[in-house]
Write a structure and sequence with these properties.
Radius of gyration: 17 Å
Number of helices: 7
Distance between the termini: 13 Å
Shape: globular
Number of domains: 1
Helix content: 25-40%
Oligomer: single chain
Strand content: 15-25%
Number of strands: 8
Length: 236
């Protein structure tokens, strides 16, 4: 996994990224030795803008599918199925990725068996897919907030959904306990961004730190590639 820093900088920057509406929320942190210093979260207008940030992010963990099966008939990706199984009661938060047939117009989204959330997010998924290549997977990894929280919570699924008060409180306690410095940003005012997305981003940021430090786990353990040579996996 990736382990480089920008030229002549005394630190490395890693990021957790999640889409919301037509924008991208980014939680980043500077890393130097054992120091991990979260930065104020920011909203970007496009995923390309995230990738063009300077200094560039050494690792980006994004809550968007990367790598796709060709047709709906091929079913769900292994990483989607295994992530749901691992998360138990929270597995319903992991949706099946669309097929490439939806992206290139061979199949209409409503005939791909996609749920409403996935259909709504298709423009964001296309944004990421347009920028991906096997080479770019040295920096950009697919993650999922529930997997990140699972790891933060000592390999235990959370009890509540992030849309209920108890679920928000559960996530905040975990983040404040595990990511020092995050507490000053968990109430940050980023225009139009619900707090649950902030929590998701900081959980993904934790996973980005693990990827950079070669500590992250992969689902599935044995790599799988799509027809364009992109790995279909999640990290946590």
């Amino acid at each position: 996994m990736s382990s480089h820093r920008g030229p002549d900088l005394p630190y490395t920057v890693v990021a957790g990224v999640t889409p919301f509406n037509d924008k991208w929320l980014v939680a980043s942190a500077k890393m130097a030795g054992s120091t991990f210093a979260p930065e104020p979260p920011k909203a970007y207008d496009s995923f390309l803008e995230v990738l063009s940030e300077r200094p560039s992010f050494a690792v980006v963990v994004v809550n968007v599918p990367i790598g796709f099966l060709d047709t709906p008939e091929m079913g769900a990706r292994t990483c989607d199925r295994q992530a749901r199984a691992l998360l138990g009661r929270r597995g319903t938060a992991v949706h099946n990725a669309p097929s490439r047939a939806v992206f290139d117009g061979r199949v209409e989204p409503d005939k791909d068996g996609l749920d409403a959330v996935t259909r709504t997010m298709l423009p964001r998924y296309r944004e990421v897919a347009a920028e991906m290549s096997p080479y770019r997977q040295r920096v950009v990894y697919e993650g999922h907030p529930e997997l990140s929280f699972f790891q933060l919570h000592k390999d235990t699924p959370l009890k509540k959904s992030k849309v209920v008060t108890e679920g928000k409180e559960e996530r905040r306690v975990i983040l404040e306990d595990r990511i020092r410095g995050s507490e000053r940003y968990l109430d940050a005012t980023v225009i139009g961004v619900p707090q649950k997305h902030l929590y998701d981003c900081f959980a993904l940021l934790w996973t980005a730190r693990r990827v950079f430090g070669h500590a992250a786990k992969r689902i599935p353990v044995e790599p799988e590639w799509d027809s364009e040579g992109i790995r279909m996996e999640m990290v946590y």
